[in-house]
Amino acid sequence: MRRASASIPTNIAEGCGRDSDAEFNRFLTIAMGSASETEYLLILSKDLQYINDEHFESLNSKVNIIKQKIYSLKQKLK
Fold first, then answer.
1. Please, are residues 14 and 51 in contact by the beta-carbon 8 Å criterion?
2. Which residues neighbour 25 within 8 Å (Cβ) at sequence distance 6 or greater?
């Protein structure tokens, strides 16, 4: 989960350093995939009872906000 969640801003930062909006968009797509992976790992953690429902809801809400922001940025690059 740490690797997946750390990949989100890492890919956004790497995409910012690229030469074109198209390349930046590609890295945003990769960041979105990492956010989805993080979301799944949260669900798995809840199902395996590593985290309680309250903690899951809080973290899942934050991941969904991040996904919405990435999606919005991708739309602006089109």
1. no
2. 15, 74, 77, 78
What's the pLDDT band for 78 if we cut at 50, 70, 90? confident
Residues 6+ apart with CB under 8 A from 8: 31, 34, 35, 38, 66, 70
CB 29 within 8 A of CB 14: no
Q: Where are the alpha helices (DSSP H) in 18-52?
A: 21-47
Q: Indicate the pTM of the whole model.
A: 0.93
Rounded CA-CA distance 48/43 in Å is 9
Alpha-carbon span 28 to 67, nearest angstrom: 10
Question: For 7-60, how does the pLDDT look when each residue is reduced to its tens digit (9 = 90+)?
Answer: 999 999 999 999 999 999 999 999 999 999 999 999 999 999 999 999 999 999
